[in-house]
Design brief:
Elements lengths: L16 H10 L4 E5 L6 H10 L4 E6 L7 H15 L4 H5 L7 H15 L5 E6 L7 H11 L6 E7 L5 H5 L5 E5 H4 L3 H10 L6 H11 L3 H9 L6 H6 L4 H12 L5 H10 L7 H7 L8 H4 L4 E4 L4 E4 L1 H8 L7 H17 L3 H11 L2 H15 L4 H11 L4 H6 L2 H12 L3 H15 L5 H20 L5 H11 L29 H19 L7 H12 L3 H17 L3 H17 L3 H17 L3 H17 L8 H4 L13 H12 L3 H7 L1 H10 L2 H17 L3 H15 L6 H4 L3 H12 L7 H28 L12 H11 L4 H8 L3 H15 L4 H10 L5 H4 L3
Helix pairs in contact: 1-2, 11-13, 15-18, 18-19, 19-20, 21-23, 23-24, 23-25, 24-25, 25-26, 26-27, 27-28, 28-29, 28-30, 29-30, 30-31, 30-32, 31-32, 32-34, 34-37, 35-37, 36-37, 37-38, 40-41, 42-44, 42-45, 43-44
């Protein structure tokens, strides 16, 4: 496939060297932005430039559905699979990078797989469609990628995008509408290309009339005319004039069947040749309709066509040419096409447009199965579509209430979800059909999930009921490779004596029924639960046995997160036992497993484990950047997990107690809602530490009492012991105060275990320091000049700014940067600075822009 075949080039467009030079200049920056209204020729200018340059190109046209992160990610992966052979499967294993940990994994893939050799240019057209903050954040992070041979461009019709683009990066280049307007010489060149000559007066008249606006200029020249007397009188071209010209030259002259086809194809956001054939009223489709139409462009990365923005608007105003049945058939055919190609979100929207709510609900069920559930991002989209159903339709299609309950569940509105499910159970029981019983099984499975989230011991009873109705397993809650995520598995229903043993029995029984219903999903969770319960209650040998059982069972059933969480727990046990080799080996197991299985959640678990390892050994140089910067992110409700606890430990070690106290307030309410017992206990312990160091004795004792009250009846002491010398100080304060009645025996036991662990941990850190000495400057492979450039990079300077500061050329700066990356084995600026700090070549204080 030639370069031109990969681009949305239209026929009969003028090559404009002036714009080529401007685009070339813009592509020296990490981000090139082309911002102008429709009809300014942004797409053609960029496509014409790329057709003549030696680069690997990805061109992706965005639409409103790309505001859903899952849809945007699927859209991008599909386009990359076409543009860069062999990458689709690898990218699919990466989740949408909604945080720095996931983006780092994506950036590593970009560096290693996409940008290895030739120059790479990505173009995202119609960026003005994007309003969702998370998707915009992806582009913001992409603009900060420092790869010599990677650039990307955003093109937008929306002039109000300027503010959002301004926050992306200061190293950007803007091409605006006035840059894209035709000059007088370019107008003459355009007419000459069509074998027409202009007198000086004619050229100035056309320039004044069109104001250099590319679209009307092309309309004029394609009609092979100059200007009429009326045009001179009108003064300048308007949208009404353009519509009139569309009508005369690019619509009114076509046969009626072709006119209707063009109108039909304007209804969806884009269309394929297969869809055009399905809508064609004749036996065959005239290929000229798609291939040679000047206002239809092909998007090769997706294998589909789209109209020029203004021409599409013109055609949509012709919808009166279609009767209601013809319009309904367009949406129906488009929906069927999207279903067959796996583009479920588009199918849902099309079924909505044609009023086929039954098929819309089926597509939503397919989406749930394909996407492994509903996320916070797509919940509002799906709920909006379920709300379209009339009361009669809700009675006719009980799956609607199930989907609504599933949406509420994923939005943590558990009471709403449970109420809907109980009502649905009463509706389904009398029906007695196989379909009703199958859905009833799904209802019981979701009730089991809700009761588990509420820490209720009866959750297994509902999975047992579900198994009775679903002998072959759940259809809507199928087998998953991820279940626990980056979270602890242990939880209790209450803090009464025996709660730990009761819940352990409930989990051992309940998870076995879950395995049946979810066809192997959650395998190993029962052992991981018992391992965590034993660890928290200071029974480390028992915890070790259960952790290995969890890993073996999870490996056999591809429950990847349970495997990694099992290794993480074994590392914690190694630390408590003072076994440096065991602790280190298990962290290596997490890292290696995450590398073998390219799944975003595993990378997050890996980064959390590595951060925990570095913090416990008090070596902050190699803490993953994703952990250190996580508090800068506006994380969604469901994104709070174990990584926050690890980051809080980092704040304790660095003495940032006020920041820690403030950070813990929001998760405190969240954990009360979700009932994550180990994290809730940790949270109150850390609040106690923070307030103690801030001199707030009453608040410190109140927080310590909350942690004690949740744990002491069930002998959960390890989390207190892990706090080391901070806990010793808190226990001494607890003995002196008279407000809270801590059990003296508990204070003595925890103090004894903690004091012993403090000595053991200190010895373990000594072993680590001997094996990992800080590198001296003489081992630094970088030259003095390279170090100067690296320090400048660490301060956030651009290549151009470094060149000015060091009195050298930009090309020399690029040479230094390539050498730095090569010597350090880095893929980008951030990684080079991180490696230099970790190896002792660069002082952390120097690299900190603050």
């Amino acid at each position: 496939m030639s370069q031109s075949d990969k681009l949305p080039l239209r026929q009969g467009m003028l090559h404009r060297p002036r714009l080529h030079a401007l685009i070339e200049k813009g592509l020296r920056y990490p981000l090139l932005v082309m911002l102008a209204g429709p009809g300014y020729g942004k797409t053609q200018a960029m496509a014409d430039y790329l057709a003549q340059c030696d680069a690997n190109v990805l061109w992706l046209r965005l639409n409103a559905l790309d505001n859903l992160p899952a849809h945007f990610w699927s859209h991008l992966i599909q386009a990359l699979g076409r543009a860069f052979a062999g990458t689709s499967e690898q990218l699919r294993s990466l989740e949408f990078p909604d945080n720095l940990s996931k983006f780092d994994a994506f950036q590593q893939f970009l560096s290693n797989e996409i940008c290895r050799e030739k120059r790479v240019i990505w173009v995202f057209d119609d960026f003005g469609e994007i309003e969702e903050r998370k998707v915009r954040d992806f582009f913001r992070m992409l603009a900060e990628v420092e790869l010599d041979n990677f650039r990307f461009t955003l093109m937008s019709n929306a002039l109000d995008n300027t503010e959002s683009i301004a926050f992306m990066t200061s190293r950007r280049f803007l091409i605006l509408g006035h840059d894209l307007r035709f000059t007088g010489d370019e107008i003459s060149d355009l007419y000459r290309m069509y074998d027409m000559s202009l007198e000086p007066g004619e050229r100035s008249g056309i320039e004044r009339y069109t104001e250099g606006w590319p679209l009307p200029l092309h309309l004029l020249v394609l009609q092979r005319n100059k200007l009429s007397e009326s045009a001179y009188r009108d003064g300048r071209m308007t949208h009404r004039t353009i519509s009139h010209m569309f009508e005369e030259r690019f619509f009114g002259t076509y046969p009626k069947e072709q006119q209707k086809l063009l109108v039909k194809l304007s209804l969806p956001n884009a269309f394929t040749e297969d869809l055009a054939r399905a809508l064609c009223e004749r036996d065959s489709l005239d290929p000229d309709v798609l291939e040679n139409h000047v206002f239809i462009a092909k998007e090769p990365s997706m294998g589909r066509y789209s109209y020029h923005h203004l021409y599409g608007l013109f055609l949509r105003k012709k919808r009166h040419l279609l009767n209601p049945e013809e319009e309904r058939l367009v949406w129906q055919k488009a929906a069927e096409h999207y279903v067959s190609s796996g583009e479920t979100m588009e199918a849902i929207s099309c079924y909505r447009a044609c009023g086929d709510h039954a098929s819309m609900l089926n597509a939503m069920c397919d989406f749930v199965r394909m996407r492994h559930g509903i996320t916070a991002e797509n919940a509002s989209f799906l709920l909006e579509h379920v709300d379209l159903l009339t009361p009669e339709e809700v009675r006719r299609y009980p799956i609607a209430d199930y989907l609504r309950a599933l949406i509420y569940l994923n939005m943590l509105e558990l009471e709403k979800a449970e109420t809907l499910l109980w009502d649905l159970e009463q509706k389904l029981l009398p029906v007695g059909t196989s379909d009703a019983f199958a859905l009833l099984g799904e209802v019981y499975a979701m009730l089991g999930s809700i009761h588990m989230m509420r820490n209720l011991e009866d959750f297994g009873d509902y999975y047992r009921k579900a198994a009775d109705y679903l002998p072959d397993g759940a259809r809507l809650q199928g087998r998953r490779q991820l279940s626990a995520g980056n979270n602890h598995c242990f939880f209790m229903a209450d803090n009464l004596p025996g709660a730990r043993e009761r819940m352990e029995r409930a989990v051992q029984s309940g998870v076995s029924w879950m395995n049946r219903v979810l066809r192997g999903g959650m395998s190993g969770m029962e052992h991981l639960f018992s391992a965590e319960a034993a660890y928290l209650s200071d029974r480390h040998a028992e915890a070790q046995q259960h952790a290995y059982r969890a890993i073996y069972k999870a490996v056999a059933n591809t429950q990847h997160d349970i495997v990694c969480n099992g290794y993480c727990l074994l590392a914690r046990i190694g630390l408590m036992q003072g076994d440096f080799a065991e602790m280190t080996g298990q962290i290596q197991n997490v890292a290696e497993y995450a590398e073998r299985h390219e799944i975003g959640v595993l990378k997050e678990i890996r980064d959390t484990a590595l951060a925990w390892y570095c913090i416990k050994l008090r070596d902050h140089r190699q803490i993953p950047k994703s952990i250190l910067t996580m508090n800068n992110e506006d994380r969604p409700v469901l994104a709070y997990n174990r990584s926050q606890i690890v980051y809080a430990n980092y704040l304790i070690q660095t003495g940032e107690y006020a920041r820690l106290a403030g950070m813990m307030e929001y998760p405190k309410g969240l954990y009360l809602t979700r009932g994550i017992w180990p994290d809730r206990i940790c949270l109150y312990i850390m609040l106690a530490i923070a307030h103690h160091h801030l001199g707030n004795s009453d608040a410190a004792m109140k927080a310590l009492w909350s942690a004690y009250d949740m744990s002491h009846e069930n002998e959960l002491i390890t989390l207190f012991v892990e706090a080391e010398e901070h806990m010793c100080a808190l226990l001494d304060a607890a003995r002196r105060q008279r407000t809270y009645a801590f059990a003296p025996a508990w204070l003595d036991l925890v103090h004894e275990r903690t004091a012993f662990f403090v000595k053991r941990a200190a010895a373990l850190r000594g072993v680590y320091r001997k094996q990992n000495p800080v590198r001296k400057a003489e081992n630094n492979p970088l030259t003095r000049r390279e170090m100067e450039v690296l320090r400048a990079l660490s301060r956030g300077l651009t290549r151009e700014e470094i060149a000015v500061e060091r009195f050298i050329s930009v090309n020399t700066v690029k040479t230094f940067i390539r050498s730095i990356y090569h010597k350090l084995g880095a893929a980008n600026r951030a990684e080079a600075v991180s490696i230099a700090i970790s190896q002792g070549y660069l002082d952390m204080a120097v690299s900190d822009p603050a």
